[in-house]
Amino acid sequence: MSEVETLPEADCQDGLPHPRHAPRLIGHEAAVAAFCTALASDRMHHAWLITGPKGIGKATFAWKAAEHLLSTPNDQGAALFDVPPAPAGFSNDPEGPVARRLRALSEPRVMVLRRGWNEKSKKLSAEITVDEVRRLNQFFGLSAVDGGRRVVIVDAVDEMNRNAANALLKLLEEPPADAVLLLVAHQPAKLLPTIRSRCRSLRLNPLDPQEMAEALHSIEIAVDDPAALVELANGSVGVAAQMIEGGGLALYAGLLALFDGLPRLDRAKAITLSEQVTGKAGEVQFDLTLALLDRLLARLARVGVTGVLPPEIVAGEGAVLSRLAPHAAEGRAWADLADRLSAKARQGRAVNLDPAALILDMVISIEKAAPRVMA
């Protein structure tokens, strides 16, 4: 690995520290236990597919797992670490030599594959290319400093193009000795089935309110109501940080109040909502508004289909959801509408439609569809 990079990093969310700087992994005890048990019992798989929603700690898990592996001698299993039945997390020393080298991107036994920097466009590449994967040949061709393990972190493996995926598959089919590949996947269904079949899967679940509060506190973000934020962000600390920065709870409350008027909407409020996403300062609000519209429609669909009210994000939400989606038929109709609006949003982005016009058009589409949905 090279010296600390000054260029943007594809595997780092804007405004948040890179996962390699996390002092510890919060939550995911079952996944930690499975990993440590495999190491302790000499059943360490050569490839681990780490799945789950974005922002819940998959990359942090991968970096802590890499540190754990490189801090454990090959002939000692996990005996030096706190392993099941009650693991408290990876037993790594944040100030140890391995941890310091990982943070500095100077650990010679680790390679990271991620979307690279395009010097011509001065932007991050849209995908991981085959040239990135081919770098592994040189990495594994070098002699390990201590003759021990070498670790590859791919973040995210579902961002590979087909040629890169095929090149990775060859490595998975014939892995080098003492190699461990940690593959972060946000959408594992997009991967080649042959890649999935050659990995051991670890599913990481969304954080609960206490874990959310701890995770946000660790990156110096204060939160008054972690339970509401867990519901709004689906247990993703990455999404939660975006919600806090953009005033997501207040915006969701405004959307809910707007929906409460269905089957007719307050056009003045709808116009005010659309005007908040204009200009450079409105870019974050635009993305947030699209995400929250999708979130609200998804919650309507779930309530209608399951008949179960989720914990409220804002006071009075349950009454609105119950009125708009009292039965499974309405739930399915809201789900269909969410799919159509998602396609409309993608199309609008593709043609650079004015953000305010796109938001207003989507809200009006909801108003037009509401009488049929609620019939």
Class computed from helices, strands and strand pairing: alpha/beta
Instruction: List the secondary-structure elements in sequence, H or E.
Output: HEHHEEEHEHEHEHHHHHHHHH
Largest sheet: 5 strands, parallel
Count of extended strands: 7
For the largest beta sheet, what order do the strands appear in spatially?
2-5-6-1-7
> What is the assigned CATH homologous superfamily of the largest domain?
P-loop containing nucleotide triphosphate hydrolases
Task: Tell me what the CATH architecture of the largest domain is.
Answer: 3-Layer(aba) Sandwich
Number of domains: 2
Please give the CATH class of the largest domain.
Alpha Beta
* Cα end-to-end separation: 60 Å
How is the topology of this model organized?
Elements: H1 29-40, E1 47-51, H2 58-70, H3 97-103, E2 110-113, E3 117-118, E4 123-124, H4 130-141, E5 150-155, H5 162-173, E6 179-185, H6 193-197, E7 200-203, H7 209-218, H8 226-233, H9 237-245, H10 248-259, H11 267-275, H12 283-306, H13 317-324, H14 328-350, H15 355-373
Parallel strand pairs: 1-6, 1-7, 2-5, 5-6
Antiparallel strand pairs: 3-4
Helix pairs in contact: 4-5, 7-8, 8-9, 10-12, 11-15, 12-14, 14-15
